[in-house]
């Protein structure tokens, strides 16, 4: 029979004829068949996670060249940008998820999926240890291990509580589909409790005070959704308590949506003020109990406590335990987040790649690297380079750090671009290294790491699959794209992020959008742009149909207030 054999921890898929040839040849001491088998065998690629990064990697991967296995504790992909809509029933949970097996079946059964959580990565023996996420009471083993040649870590991030006391026990999070469903039930619970006879007014106020910690895009969108849910639907079915409802957004910074353009941030603050949503900026949450949330005013240091019925904690992301443990093994234990290079390779570990929210391109050493490139080029230690040498050096820097090119091109960075125009001028024969480094150090402050968004994760996944599809070619050119100046660019360029803009839905059929080229758009027409972009970005026609159907249902019948 055709079968697989495992030798020296490598699985070889061979047909029966091959196996006999292998057995005969090894018995005779002839290693040629073994060598041939090794050469023809597929490399094992193991992917951790079925989120934006993992699925985008698998979507375009040429699986005929690899033996691919996928491990994830959930057997579906979730369209996270619509999670806030699930919390209030604008969109149903099943409409935003797509079964992984549905997506993988397009690969003609060449990708194997295991519904399990990876508990440990062992980079030395190149294997991972997993535990099945399926009901423990079912027959059979739960723990198993898998070996790999290439590991792609795309297991996202977890919520970050900043070790604030009481958060884990008393707050809701909005990260997974189950979180959104839980929030929906709790909102209804708060209303059902508030209408029970015999409650004091204070108790009704407390039960109907919804607090959101974090004024970033997710927190703001949830606050807006909740406001619409309450004012469009719930006040009609719970009219007796409509005056007791309160929504508060707590933000430690000075403004909500502070990663957006200033115009969007102030538009959102004004809209929330009109809608009666309290925005408490400059407040830091110190602890959360089952009934109150305790804060400190940043400016005065004053302690403030407010009662709550429900708190949603939405303040950024942290590293998952399995990634933290892996980081310690590879000497990245002191870092906050797993460092990768521009080719998405984990620093300090062969054949392991990481993408999406679980990793970030290490930019701490950017200026150090740039200095050493200059130092190597300045052979006579004169502190200057000829135009020709400078062009080479700049080419090298831009290839290694594409963000430098973006920076130099950016219209905000006049000093650097003026400087470059100056050095590229005809009459200038030499370039002063210190002057150029000074210009670059100005941009260093602005070259922040990439944001933790689905956009970045999906682009990284697509990029890595292209690299894997061209692996052979790249192996022949491990130095990467060195031919910047003379021979043209090599195909295997470092990952370059293309920002396509971002949305901030603000409720009441109004959305703000920041589009490429510094375009800002706000209001009802932008909401229609949001509908069309999000419908078009769905991963399948099935979910597209369901999501658009849910939106239409909401327009006609409103949202459902049953607690299921
Ligand atoms: P994820 O999508 O989180 O996927 C991680 C995968 O790894 C999951 O399948 C998980 O089950 C799996 N996994 C976890 N642990 C393990 C383990 N131990 N072993 C194996 N597998 C594991 N971004 C935008 O660009 N636009 C938006 O509008 C937007 N809105 C958002 C709204 C909300 C409510 C949230 C929570 C996020 C939003 N984001 C948005 C951010 C975006 O969802 C993330 O940046 C994106 O999901 C990151 O992709 P990822 O693949 O790295 O991680």
UniProtKB/TrEMBL annotation:
Q: Please list the cofactors this protein needs.
A: FAD
**UniProt KW keywords:** Calcium, FAD, Flavoprotein, Membrane, Mitochondrion, Mitochondrion inner membrane, NAD, Oxidoreductase, Peroxisome, Transit peptide
Part of the intact protein present: 544 to 1107 of 1107
Task: State the protein's name.
Answer: NADH:ubiquinone reductase (non-electrogenic)
Q: What is its EC number?
A: 1.6.5.9
State the GO CC annotations: mitochondrial inner membrane; peroxisome
Catalyses which reaction(s) = a ubiquinone + NADH + H(+) = a ubiquinol + NAD(+); a quinone + NADH + H(+) = a quinol + NAD(+)
Q: Where in the cell is it found?
A: Mitochondrion inner membrane; Peroxisome
């Amino acid at each position: 029979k055709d079968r697989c054999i495992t030798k020296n921890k490598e699985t070889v898929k061979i047909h029966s004829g091959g196996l006999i040839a292998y057995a005969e040849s090894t018995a005779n001491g002839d290693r040629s068949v073994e060598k041939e088998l090794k050469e023809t065998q597929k490399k094992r690629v193991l992917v951790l996670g079925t989120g934006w990064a993992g699925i985008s990697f698998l979507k375009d991967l040429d699986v005929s060249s690899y033996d691919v296995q996928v491990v994830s504790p959930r057997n579906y992909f979730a369209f996270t940008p619509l999670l806030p809509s699930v919390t209030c029933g604008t969109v149903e949970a099943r409409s935003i998820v797509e079964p992984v097996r549905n997506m993988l079946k397009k690969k003609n059964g060449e990708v194997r999926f295991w519904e399990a959580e990876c508990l440990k990565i062992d980079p030395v023996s190149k294997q991972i240890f997993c535990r099945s996420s399926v009901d423990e009471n079912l027959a059979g083993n739960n723990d198993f291990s898998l070996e790999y040649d290439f590991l792609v870590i795309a297991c996202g991030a977890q919520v970050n509580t900043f070790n604030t006391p009481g958060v884990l026990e008393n707050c809701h999070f909005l990260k997974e589909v189950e979180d959104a469903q839980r929030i929906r039930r709790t909102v209804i619970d708060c209303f059902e409790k508030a209408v029970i006879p015999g409650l004091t007014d204070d108790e009704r106020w407390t039960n109907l005070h919804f607090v959101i910690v974090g004024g970033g895009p997710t927190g703001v969108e949830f606050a807006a959704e909740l406001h619409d849910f309450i004012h469009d639907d719930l006040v009609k079915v719970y009219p007796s308590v409509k005056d007791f409802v309160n929504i508060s957004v707590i933000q430690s910074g000075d403004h909500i949506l502070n990663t957006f353009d200033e115009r969007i941030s102030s538009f959102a603050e004004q809209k929330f003020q009109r809608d009666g949503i309290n925005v408490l900026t400059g407040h830091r949450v110190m602890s959360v109990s089952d009934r109150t949330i305790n804060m400190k005013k940043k400016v005065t240091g004053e302690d403030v406590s407010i009662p709550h019925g429900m708190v949603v904690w939405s303040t950024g992301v942290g590293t998952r335990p399995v990634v933290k443990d892996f980081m310690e093994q590879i000497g990245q234990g002191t870092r906050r987040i797993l460092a990768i290079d521009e080719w998405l390779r984990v620093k300090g570990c062969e054949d392991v790649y990481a993408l999406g929210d679980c990793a970030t391109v290490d930019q701490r050493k950017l200026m150090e690297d740039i200095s050493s490139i200059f130092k190597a080029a300045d052979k006579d230690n004169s502190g200057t380079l000829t135009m020709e040498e400078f062009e080479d050096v700049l080419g090298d820097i831009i290839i290694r750090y594409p963000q430098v090119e973006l920076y130099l091109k950016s219209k905000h960075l006049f000093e650097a671009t003026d400087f470059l125009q100056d050095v590229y001028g005809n009459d200038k024969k030499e370039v002063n290294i210190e002057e150029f480094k000074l210009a670059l150090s100005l941009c260093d402050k602005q070259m922040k790491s990439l944001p933790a968004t689905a956009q970045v994760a999906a682009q990284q996944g697509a990029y890595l699959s292209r690299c894997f599809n061209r692996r052979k070619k790249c192996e022949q050119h491990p130095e990467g794209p060195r031919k910047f100046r003379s021979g043209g660019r090599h195909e295997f360029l470092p990952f370059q992020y293309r920002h396509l803009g971002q949305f901030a839905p603000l409720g009441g059929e109004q959305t703000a959008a920041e589009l490429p080229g510094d375009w800002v758009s706000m209001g009802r027409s932008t909401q229609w742009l949001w509908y069309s972009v999000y419908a078009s970005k769905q991963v399948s026609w099935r979910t597209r149909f369901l999501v658009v159907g849910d939106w239409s249902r909401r327009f006609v019948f409103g949202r459902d207030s049953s607690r299921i």
